[in-house]
Amino acid sequence: MNIHIKSVLSALAFSLLFYSKSFGLNLFLISIVVVVLLSTIRKERSISWGYALTYIATAIFVFLNPSGFSIFVHFMAFMVFVGKSISQKTSVYISWFIGCINMLIASLANHIQNQEKESEKKEQKDISPKLFNRLKGALVAIPILIIFGMLYRNANPVFENLIEQIDFDFISVPWLFFTLLGYVIFLNLLRPYAAKELVDFDLAQENELEKPTELVLIGEKKKLEGEHTLGSIVFLALNLLLLFFLATDVVYLYQKTDLTNSEFSQSVHQGVYALMFSIVCAIVLILYFFRGNLNFFDRNKRIKLLTYLWIGLNVILVAFTCFKNYTYVEALGLTYKRIGVFVYLLLTLTGLVTAYIKVAQVKNFIYLLRTNIATVFTFLMISGAVPWDKTITHFNLKTLENPDLNYLIDLGESNSEQLFNYTQANKDKMEIDTIESISDKYTGFLDQQSKKTWQEYTSYQLTKTKTK
After folding, report:
1. Are residues 355 and 421 in the same domain?
2. Are 90 and 203 in contact (CB under 8 A)?
3. For the chain, what is the largest distance between any 2 Cα atoms, rounded to a whole number of angstroms?
4. Cα 337–Cα 385–Cα 19 angle in degrees, nearest 5
5. Which terminus of the chain is less hemmed in, N or C, by CB atoms within 10 Å?
6. Dihedral (CA of 73, 79, 84, 89) sign
7. What total number of domains does the chain contain?
8. What is the pLDDT of residues 414-468, one digit of tens each?
9. Which among 363, 381, 414 is the end of a domain?
10. What pTM did the predictor assign?
C-alpha cells in the first residue's frame, strides 16, 4: 500500500481517537498502530522491540493512571522509540533527538534531500510522485471550482437553487486541520528522515580512551607527574573536608530529637544542596584529571586511590541524606519534593558508580553521558508506572495522625475517591471547609468521568463496570 494512503488512513484513525478527546484508551490504541506501521514499513530495517514494548507499556501506564507525568513519560518513550526505529545502535539521547526531528521536519528534510539527489537518480519506481501531483491538482482545482461556481450561481437561477440546497455544515474546519496534522505526523513516521550524519557521528564515538604509545608517555612524563601531584593534593584536601563534614553530620543526626520540623526540613534541603555541589565538583575534577594520558601513567595509583576514597565518601553522604529525608517523610508525610529527593539520591548513586567505572576502566566523557542519560530514561519509564497522587495520599492518610489534607486536595483528580472515603470515616475530626472542598473535588471528578467517551476510557471506567 502506498505511503500516502497509509498516512491518510492513519490520520483518520488519529482524528477518530483524539479529536476533542482527553488521553486514555486512545493512546494505547494509537501506540499499537504506530508499532505495527513502523514494523512493516521497511522490511530491511527491524525495529527495537524492547523500546517498542516500553512505548506500549507507557501507554498502559496512562490508561491506568492518566496524570500529566505519565503522559509526559509516554511521549518521551515515543520520541526515543521513533529514533530507535531509524537506528537501533544510537545512544538514547541521540535517538530522542532524531525522534523530535522526525516529528517536526522529516517530510521537509526528505523533500530537500530528494531534490538534491534528483539529478543523480532518474529512475523512480515509487508511485508517490504521481499521487502527490494528483493531490496538488485537486488542491488547485477546488478553489477554482468554488470561484466559478459563485459566478455561475449569479447567472442561472436554477443553478443557484441547486447550490443553496447543498449543506456543508457537516464539514468541520478544526477537524480538517486536526486530521491534516495526523496525516503529517504519520507521513513523517512512515517516511522518516534518517539523519545519517548524526547517526554516524554517534556510532563513531567510543566509550574508552585511546591508549597512547610508550614514547608519548615518556615524552609527557614531567607533565603527568605535575598533574598527578596537583590532583593528589586536591583530592586529599577534599577528602579531609568531606570527612569533617560527615563527622559533624553524625553529631547533627544524634541531636535531631531536639529540632523543630522547619529546622529538620532545612537540614535535609541543605544536605541535598551540599550533595549536589559535591557531586558536580567530583565529576568535573574526575573528568579534568582523568581526561587523557594520566589514566595510563604508571605512577597514578595514589590519585586513583584518593579518587576512589572521594567517591566512597560521597556514597556515605548520599546514605546520610537519604536517612534524613526518610526521617522527614516519616514525621511529616510524602510530598512530590520529598520523592524527588529520593529519586535524585538514587540517580546520584548511579552517577558515582559510573564515575568509579570511568576511572577504573579508563572510560571517557561519552561513556558517562550515554550511561547516565540512559539511566535517567530508565527511571522515567519506571516512575511512569507509579500512580504518585494515589501513593502519596494512601501513605499520608494511613501513616500520619494529622495529614495535610489541603496538600492532598491540591493533587490531581485521581485521589478524589480516597479523600472522599477518608472524609466519610473521619467527619467528626475534620473542619467543615475541608469536607466541602473534598466533596466538591469528588463531585467534579465523578462528573468528569461520566462524560468520557470510549476513546477516553481509563481504568476507572473498567473498575466501575466490574462493580456494577
Report:
1. no
2. yes
3. 101
4. 100
5. C
6. negative
7. 3
8. 999 999 999 998 888 888 999 999 999 999 999 999 899 989 999 887 776 555 5
9. 363
10. 0.82
